[in-house]
Amino acid sequence: MSFFRKTRDSIEIEVYPKEGESTDSLIRRFRKKVNNSGILKEARKHDFYEKPSAVRRRKKVEATIRCRSEESKKEKIQENER
After folding, report:
1. Contacts of 37 (CB under 8 A, 6+ apart)
2. Buried b / exposed e across 8-40, counting CB within 10 Å, b at 16+?
3. Is residue 78 scored above 60 in pLDDT?
4. Over the stretch 11-61, which tens digit does the pLDDT of each residue have?
5. Beta strand ranges found along the chain (DSSP E)
């Protein structure tokens, strides 16, 4: 059994060993939980100070990329329907 416990400033991930489970598979499950939770991504984001103007600029670029990819997906779907 594993679960996420959110404390005031951090998120703790706990992974309990299953009966007869090797340490390699336990570590693999832990790494998977960490990657899926986004803890490392969040830590890297806060690694350095980012000016508010840079944050706005980055979010705007991300939004345009997301919008373009959604439009291309819609176009591909429309082409497949023909």
Report:
1. 4, 11, 13
2. eeeeeeebeeeeeeeeeeeeebeeebeeeeebe
3. yes
4. 788 899 999 999 999 999 999 999 998 888 888 888 899 999 999 999 999
5. 2-6, 11-15
